[in-house]
């Protein structure tokens, strides 16, 4: 059943894991004919003719010699990878045209495994001879393969049997009952020995375990065994390794979305319990790869095993799971760059978040305290010092050292040695998706300690391919996800909105709001921009102001029917000075407000202006200003609300 699933895996590769973002993988295995000539599509008819003329009992494809031999009526062909060779599409076409063969896959699996143990020529003794792994080992050593070991032969004979059996099951009319025999396995063993041990061309898992490559590289692997509720065995065709699944992948495994025989593309894996480089056959049983949902994708049945040549798979923002691990790459449109945030960590572990203005005040206050301590110590030492001491160079040097020591000690006592401050820059991005995908999602990307050059490059309206982002489970808005930059994160510019392929779909979201009434049904945390007339501003406490505003379009209408916007403004809001200087019914503009709740009884929408918000004054014509009667009515209404 395990091997038969591999044949069914090609019917709908997207159904294997319900990500919805599987890519097209055009890497396919290719084959070469037995006469040593590159067989492109022009060589297909002869290939088909030879197959049709062969004996139906035990014709065999020989995978190692590269020569076409005829031995007791049995033809041997060599099939291997190479540029311009027959591709999977050619084999599929041949398999479709050869409809005369009656092949029973359920009965053939057992017989094929039996055929793999028997010789069909004189080469390994005699036709029908039972060939064991010890016999393979003996023959290889007699031919000069001196470094081969029993463990190596046993492992690779098993892997080769699975490989050839998959060919028979996948191309039943073409290879059914024609591929597996001891000679084919032996020739593949010799070929693998030359490739791995002589030429040192190692497989992907071999290179990872030997620390020749990073385990985070994208690979195509095959599921060869289910080892429990949270573990599977993966293979690159040469060697196997245990893979531990995260919670989301375990759910897919329990639903049958991950099964033996399917191929998966894995990226951003983590290798655990591997302290030293080792051969795959010598690794400890505790060594495993950790797989995460955001880095596992369904692969086509004809995808070539090993490192993926086309690069890192793209993950759409709608498919990113907050608990699914690192996102290998995604394509985004920069919508907004928020004001810089300064995060200070104190010695007791407290974190203080500040805007640019507050950070400048904190820096000035810190430097002022240090200067005051220096002046006090300097004045004290001057009073203690005698005039003749200043004439002696050695005493002057000693006094200087003592001054620095006292200053450092005092700084340490008052926690003024240095400030541990890191800058944080947030971006709002939207998804760039193929035109047929209508699902949209936005994200906030957080980046620590950005350079000035990067801040200038990441401007709104530009499209980037972003690598290695870590999702964070923040908030409960399904239309917004938070991503944090890792150390390996990097940006590749793709272009601007006007330079993109018409097959891609993107849209710069317009967060502006012209009427307060349109906000009444929004979800908590919804972000928007607002411009309106200031009615009243009052200080709630040391850190917050309460601001009442009305839409410019509601001025001149019925005061009792107009909706009011109440903004709770934090002290870290950028442009707070503009709010303090504003007068009633002057026009203010807020960016990046966060919706809180709606007071339907009083027709008031409540929102917040935090550290990422900006307050600015906006000039409008005199026609938009309120009359004196309307001003009085609005002020009385706000006064009732503030005293309620």
Helical fraction: 25-40%
* Continuous helix count: 15
Low-confidence stretches: 1-84, 621-625
DSSP summary, beta strand count: 28
Overall pLDDT confidence: 75
Beta-strand percentage? 25-35%
How large, in whole angstroms, is the Cα Rg?
A: 36 Å
User: Separation of termini?
Assistant: 72 Å
Question: Structural class of the secondary elements?
Answer: alpha+beta
What would the principal axes of the Cα set say about the shape?
A: flat
Largest sheet: 8 strands, mixed
Explain what the structure shows.
The protein has 644 residues and is α+β, with helices and mostly antiparallel strands. The protein is built from 15 helices and 28 strands. Strands 5, 6, 7, 8, 9, 10, 11 and 12 form an 8-stranded mixed β-sheet that branches. Strands 13-16-18-20-19 form a 5-stranded mixed beta barrel. The longest helix has 29 residues, at 356-384. The protein starts with a helix and ends with a helix.
What are the key terms here?
five-stranded mixed barrel, eight-stranded mixed sheet, 644 residues, disordered N terminus
In short:
This protein is α+β, with helices and mostly antiparallel strands. It has 15 helices and 28 strands. It is flat.
Topology:
Layout: H1 2-8, E1 30-31, H2 44-53, E2 69-71, E3 74-76, E4 86-87, H3 88-97, H4 105-115, H5 133-142, H6 150-170, H7 172-175, H8 182-198, H9 204-209, E5 219-226, E6 231-235, E7 240-245, H10 247-254, E8 263-266, E9 270-272, E10 288-291, E11 296-298, E12 306-307, E13 327-337, E14 341-345, E15 351-354, H11 356-384, H12 393-413, E16 420-431, E17 433-434, E18 442-448, H13 452-457, E19 462-472, E20 480-496, E21 504-505, E22 512-513, E23 527-539, E24 544-551, E25 564-570, H14 576-581, E26 587-599, E27 604-609, E28 614-617, H15 628-643
Parallel strand pairs: 7-10, 18-20, 22-23, 25-27
Antiparallel strand pairs: 1-4, 2-3, 5-6, 5-8, 5-12, 6-7, 8-11, 9-10, 13-16, 13-19, 14-15, 14-16, 16-18, 17-21, 19-20, 23-24, 23-26, 24-25, 26-27, 26-28
Helix pairs in contact: 1-6, 5-6, 6-8, 11-12
């Amino acid at each position: 059943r395990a091997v038969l699933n591999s044949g069914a895996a090609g019917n709908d590769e997207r159904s294997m894991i319900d990500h919805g973002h599987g890519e097209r993988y055009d890497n396919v295995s290719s084959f070469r004919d037995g006469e040593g000539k590159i067989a492109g599509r022009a060589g297909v008819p002869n290939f088909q003719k030879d197959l049709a003329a062969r004996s139906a009992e035990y014709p065999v494809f020989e995978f190692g010699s590269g020569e076409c031999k005829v031995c007791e009526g049995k033809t041997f062909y060599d099939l291997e990878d190479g540029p311009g060779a027959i591709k999977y599409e050619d084999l599929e076409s041949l398999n479709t045209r050869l409809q005369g063969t009656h092949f029973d896959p359920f009965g053939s699996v057992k017989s094929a495994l039996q055929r793999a143990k028997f010789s069909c020529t004189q080469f390994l003794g005699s036709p029908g001879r039972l060939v064991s792994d010890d016999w393979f080992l003996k023959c290889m050593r007699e031919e000069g393969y001196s470094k081969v070991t029993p463990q190596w032969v046993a492992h690779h004979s098993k892997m080769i049997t699975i490989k050839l059996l998959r060919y028979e099951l996948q191309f039943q009319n073409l290879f059914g009952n024609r591929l597996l025999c001891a000679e084919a396995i032996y020739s593949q063993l010799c070929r693998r020995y030359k490739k791995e041990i002589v030429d040192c061309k190692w497989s992907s898992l071999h290179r990872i375990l030997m620390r020749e490559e990073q385990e985070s590289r994208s690979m195509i692997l095959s599921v060869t065994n289910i080892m429990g509720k949270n573990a599977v065995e993966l293979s690159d065709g040469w060697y196997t390794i245990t893979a531990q699944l995260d919670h989301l992948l375990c759910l897919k495994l329990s639903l049958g979305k991950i099964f033996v025989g399917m191929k998966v593309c894995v990226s951003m894996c983590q290798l655990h319990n591997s302290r030293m480089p080792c051969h795959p056959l010598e690794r400890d049983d505790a060594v495993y790869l950790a797989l995460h949902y955001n880095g596992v994708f369904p692969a086509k049945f004809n995808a070539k095993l090993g490192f993926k040549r086309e690069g890192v798979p793209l993950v759409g923002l709608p498919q990113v799971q907050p608990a699914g691990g690192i996102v290998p790459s995604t394509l985004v449109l920069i919508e907004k760059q928020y004001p810089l945030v300064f995060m200070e960590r104190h010695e007791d572990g407290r974190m203080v978040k500040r805007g640019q203005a507050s950070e400048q005040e904190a820096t000035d206050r810190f430097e002022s305290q240090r200067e005051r301590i220096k002046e006090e110590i300097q004045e004290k030492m001057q009073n203690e010092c005698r005039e003749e001491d200043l004439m002696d160079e050695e005493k002057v040097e000693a006094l200087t050292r003592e001054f620095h020591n006292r200053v450092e000690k005092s700084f340490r006592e008052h926690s003024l040695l240095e400030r541990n401050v890191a800058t944080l820059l947030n971006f709002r991005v939207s998804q760039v998706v193929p035109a047929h995908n209508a699902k949209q999602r936005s994200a906030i990307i957080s980046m620590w300690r950005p350079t000035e050059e990067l801040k200038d490059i990441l401007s709104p309206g530009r499209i980037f391919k972003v690598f290695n982002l870590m999702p964070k489970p923040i908030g409960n808005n399904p239309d917004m996800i938070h991503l944090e930059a890792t150390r390996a994160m990097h940006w590749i510019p793709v272009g601007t909105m006007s330079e993109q392929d018409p097959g891609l779909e993107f849209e710069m979201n317009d967060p502006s709001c012209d009427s307060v009434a349109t906000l009444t049904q929004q979800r908590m945390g919804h972000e928007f921009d607002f411009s309106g007339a200031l009615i009243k501003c009052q200080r709630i406490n040391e850190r917050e102001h309460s601001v009442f505003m009305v839409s410019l379009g509601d001025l001149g209408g019925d005061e009792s029917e107009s909706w009011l916007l109440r903004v709770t403004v934090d002290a870290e809001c950028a442009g707070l000075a503009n709010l303090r200087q504003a007068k009633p019914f002057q026009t203010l503009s807020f960016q990046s407000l966060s919706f809180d709740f709606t007071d339907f009884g009083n027709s008031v929408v409540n929102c917040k202006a935090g550290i990422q918000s900006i307050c600015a004054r906006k000039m409008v014509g005199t026609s938009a200003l309120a009359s004196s009667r309307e001003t009085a009515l609005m002020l009385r209404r706000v006064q009732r609300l503030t005293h309620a």
